[in-house]
């Protein structure tokens, strides 16, 4: 009985460690920007992003908040705002940092399910991530562009009229 309890504790600890320390998705790209002199609340930023996403009516988008450990199992955790659609997710971080404000967006894909791992079946059911139709590639691109457009518009809104330099055209395109 003692050994079973010990194994259960080890399994739960590993599950908890994996859940709170690793990035659960494969990151495809990242954008980050620091705004010196800007004071803003992360929660207000997340609310504005969610509201703007809903106003943009991004099809099939889901919104949630995710907690990730800063480093290890017992480290402090950070909250990210997540926008997801099918296998794609954007984890958005907003945080005061020193005398400024920081924003990052991580585009990733969820880990493939069982059906997506079976070579012939994934193609039959349209779940093969390596062989997408034009429609799948286009809707993926539209999702990516829509979320980044929303984040850019929120950044514009919170920097406008505050004497804070917003995003340059080059920075907007480098995501």
Model description:
The chain is of the alpha+beta class and 175 residues long. It has a single domain, classed as TATA-Binding Protein. It is 43% helix and 27% strand. The chain has a five-stranded antiparallel β-sheet with strand order 1-5-4-3-2. About 5% of the residues have low confidence.
Helical proportion?
A: 40-55%
Q: What general form does the structure show?
A: flat
Structural class label: alpha+beta
What fraction of residues sit in β-strands? Answer: 25-35%
Oligomer: single chain
Q: Using the coordinates above, name the CATH class.
A: Alpha Beta
- The count of β-strands is 5
Summarize the helix and strand pattern as letters: HEHEEEEHHHH
Supply the CATH architecture. 2-Layer Sandwich
- Which radius of gyration do the C-alpha atoms yield? 19 Å
Please tell me the overall pLDDT: 83
| Count of individual domains | 1
Q: Spatial order of the strands in the main sheet? A: 1-5-4-3-2
The count of helical stretches stands at: 6
Poorly predicted parts: 15-22
CATH topology: TATA-Binding Protein
């Amino acid at each position: 009985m003692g050994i079973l309890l010990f194994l259960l504790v080890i399994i739960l600890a590993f599950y908890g460690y994996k859940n709170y320390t690793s990035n659960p998705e494969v990151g495809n790209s990242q954008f980050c920007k620091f705004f010196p002199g800007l004071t803003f609340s992360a929660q207000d930023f997340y609310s504005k992003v969610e509201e703007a996403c809903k106003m943009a009516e991004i099809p099939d988008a889901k919104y949630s908040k995710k907690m990730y450990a800063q480093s290890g199992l017992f480290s402090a955790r950070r909250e990210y705002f997540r926008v997801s659609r099918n296998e794609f997710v954007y984890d958005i971080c907003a945080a005061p940092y020193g005398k400024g404000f920081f924003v990052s967006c991580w585009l990733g894909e969820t880990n493939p399910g069982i059906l997506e791992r079976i070579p012939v079946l994934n193609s039959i059911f349209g779940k093969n991530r390596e062989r997408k139709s034009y429609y799948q590639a286009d809707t993926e691109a539209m999702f990516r562009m829509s979320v980044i457009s929303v984040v850019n518009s929120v950044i514009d809104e919170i920097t406008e009229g505050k004497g804070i330099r917003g995003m340059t055209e080059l920075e907007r395109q480098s995501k």
